[in-house]
Amino acid sequence: MSGDNATLRWVPLESNPELFTEWSKSLGLDTSQYAFHDIYGLDAELLSMVPQPVQAVLLLFPISEAYEKKRREDDELVKEGESEKDGEIWFKQT
């Protein structure tokens, strides 16, 4: 972005793998190598439906007060964009 007054804008996206893939392609993702797919559950049968290899997982879930409390506690320990574990990065979607 150019200039000091430039504003970073995030486009709200529907939780739809095709939309995520197209949006990511517009940002330069090589969609011949990578794409987004739905994961319907974490049991072995449902995970077997996900194309392999998997490079990352985006989790979308409702936020509860218990979750917010735990998140605030964790936020005290880890700065956004960092993690306690190698290869894991946390960014809050607003």
UniProtKB/TrEMBL annotation:
Q: Which reaction(s) are listed as its catalytic activity?
A: Thiol-dependent hydrolysis of ester, thioester, amide, peptide and isopeptide bonds formed by the C-terminal Gly of ubiquitin (a 76-residue protein attached to proteins as an intracellular targeting signal)
What's the Enzyme Commission number for this chain?
A: 3.4.19.12
Source superkingdom: Eukaryota
GO BP annotations, alphabetical order: protein deubiquitination; ubiquitin-dependent protein catabolic process
Q: Say which enzyme class the record assigns.
A: hydrolase
Similarity annotation: Belongs to the peptidase C12 family.
Protein name, as recorded: Ubiquitin carboxyl-terminal hydrolase
Instruction: Report the source organism.
Output: Ceraceosorus guamensis
Q: What is the lineage of its organism?
A: Eukaryota, Fungi, Dikarya, Basidiomycota, Ustilaginomycotina
